[in-house]
Specification:
By secondary structure, the chain is mainly alpha-helical. 58% of the residues lie in helices and 2% in strands.
């Protein structure tokens, strides 16, 4: 710029367009250059001169060697350095080891849960090379946990990768390491925690499952479950629960697939039951809740409803279990009760499952599945679901077949009901609701009879047979008599003249139905309040502090009363004026 010398020009970090950078090989050299600039005019320090804005469009001059100086702004226009995704993934995996160390040191499972939550962001970037590099850099070749590393490497197909040597950390710049007092280096004496072993094993399970290597994953998970069963560490509870989860998923994908008694899914039940017994004895809440849910899923997959019912009756689900596990348990319990024709209990459990389902997008599939089963149970109970359930943006497309089903059941159209089953039968089978929906045929007929009883004061059995598409008048008579006995309709049946006479409908609000509906809603709100209070976190020893403050307040009151009695205090000392009546 004109009017200014280069010595006074401001200097920013890095190089400039058209300027030359000063290469500083050492800190001493940089300091010597700084001292030379202060001595005088004879020895001047070379300073990078920034070009003006008008000269920014000119090409940069060549340096001594004839090469063009690289501009940092050209490398990254947005000012952000590009990081290698492989290095970033490795750093993300190793960063969770610090969380596991803190979980062990502080005996706090929240750090382990933070490490598990990071798997969802890491799993898309996992490759065998990344896993092998992390394992090779974590374990030493002669350590006591080298056999775990060999199993991990063999699972990802990198069994020929060598672990880092014990002397790799002992030499710096070619000089031999000085012997420590205890005869071992600091890094050599620090062993890899079992929590880190299981975390890496979970990453291997995730990679094998995403790669659809179910046979290799099943063998590796079997070894991993045996290894976990030999350990007895409370800090492994949340990690072990995740291992058992993937252990079950692998065997579900092996042929023959579930819904048959020959499925390999049956072979893992002894292992899961042994893990459940051990978890109950050790009071491992995470493993206990996870294994119970896995066993219920296992029994339902092979249609062993009686064994699932025995498991529920002989075990107690932990009260302090994670919210996700509680939602899964309530869903499977609701499915069992629906199959057992206990629709009221099934409706209660499924309602709790939908309320406890996470609102995040990753749990959308569970919410849809639980809502579908809840809608079918409500129809079996004789209730019609609210239209607002089908208007939710996340549920509208998935619940479209069920919306049509509800419409057919609501009007009692048997012909439309059968057409919907024929059209969407594959969807209902995939959702495992087909057998329950077939039970709705009687409900459709009862609904049709109820609609006719409301529309007509008297209707012949022949007209009922024609409207409901029944085979004969005898079947219509039987269905009407059963509906009267069950309390579906209030009518009388005249067999001689062959017609049904409806009674006058009273006021619904004069019955107990509104009060029972309000009572159910109040119970749900109170239960939600109690669960919210239990889930709150309170500061440690807060009750002692409150007790101490209360005792100090009582002491002050006693002293004040004593001084008042002795006459040491007057109205001014008590604060403010006092006017008697």
């Amino acid at each position: 710029m004109p009017g200014k010398t280069p010595d006074k020009e401001p200097v920013e970090n890095g190089g400039y367009r058209g300027g030359k950078d000063i290469e500083m090989k050492d800190k001493d050299e940089a300091s010597s250059l700084k001292h030379k600039g202060k001595k005088g005019d004879d020895e001047k320090m070379t300073v990078v001169v920034p070009p003006s804005k008008k000269q920014s469009s000119q090409p940069p001059p060549n340096d001594v060697d004839g090469d063009v100086a690289m501009d940092e702004a050209d490398q990254a226009d947005d000012g952000e350095l590009k990081v290698d995704p492989v290095v970033q993934t490795i750093n993300d995996i190793k960063g969770n080891f610090a969380l596991l160390d803190r979980a062990v040191a502080l005996f706090d499972a929240r750090f382990s849960l933070r490490a598990l939550r990071s798997i969802s962001s890491i799993r898309k970037r996992l490759t065998p090379d990344i896993l092998a590099q992390v394992i090779a850099e974590t374990y030493q070749s002669g350590s006591s946990r080298a056999h775990i590393a060999s199993q991990l490497l063999a699972a990802v197909g990198k069994g020929d990768v060598q672990l880092r040597g014990q002397s790799a950390e002992m030499e710096v710049d070619g000089e031999p390491k000085a012997p420590a007092k205890n005869g071992a280096s600091k890094k050599e004496s620090k062993e890899v925690l079992p929590e880190a072993d299981i975390f890496l094993a979970i990453l291997v399970q995730v990679y094998l499952y995403d790669s659809k290597k179910f046979r290799e994953g099943a063998e590796f998970s079997r070894f991993l479950c045996d290894h976990i069963h030999s350990l007895n560490r409370r800090t492994l509870d949340s990690l072990s629960a995740k291992v058992y989860f993937y252990y079950s998923l692998f065997f579900e994908q092996l042929s023959p697939l579930p819904h048959t008694s020959q499925s390999p899914l049956v072979s893992i039940r002894p292992t899961l039951l042994a893990a459940l017994r051990t978890a109950v004895l050790r009071k491992d809440i995470d493993i206990q809740s996870s294994v119970i849910v896995i066993l219920l899923r296992n029994y339902l997959a092979t249609s062993h409803i009686s064994q699932a019912d025995l498991l529920v009756s002989h075990t107690q689900f932990p009260e302090n279990a994670a919210n996700n596990q509680v939602a899964r348990f309530l869903y499977y319990l609701g499915r069992i009760r629906a199959i057992q024709l206990r629709y009221t209990e099934a409706h209660e459990h499924l309602t709790g499952a939908t309320r406890k389902a996470p609102s995040s997008a990753c749990a959308l599939g569970f919410s849809q599945t639980a809502t579908k089963l809840l809608l079918v149970v409500e129809l079996l109970m004789g209730d019609i679901p609210e239209r607002a359930v089908f208007r939710q943006p996340t549920m509208e497309q998935a619940l479209l077949p069920y919306f049509q089903l509800v419409g057919a059941v609501r009007v009692g159209d048997l012909d439309a009901f059968e057409n919907i089953i024929a059209e969407h039968g594959d969807v209902f089978r995939r959702d495992d609701t087909y057998s329950l929906i077939l039970r709705l045929r009687q409900n459709v007929i009862k609904t049709g009879i109820r609609m006719m009883s409301l529309s007509y004061s008297r209707i012949s059995l022949r007209d009922i047979c024609i409207r409901l598409h029944l085979g004969s008048e005898e079947s219509a008579e039987y269905i009407v008599a059963k509906a009267i006995r069950d309390g579906v309709i209030e009518a009388t049946l005249d067999r001689e003249h062959g017609f049904m006479r409806s009674k006058e409908i009273g006021d619904v609000y004069a019955t107990r139905e509104p009060g029972e509906a309000f009572h159910e809603r109040i119970q749900a709100c109170l239960a939600l309040h109690d669960e919210s209070v239990k889930a709150m976190r309170f500061p440690m020893n807060q009750h002692r502090l409150e007790l101490k403050n209360a005792q100090e307040a009582r002491e002050r009151e006693r002293e004040m009363v004593k001084e008042i009695q002795e006459g040491d205090l007057d109205d001014d000392d008590l604060g403010g004026d006092f006017e008697g009546m």
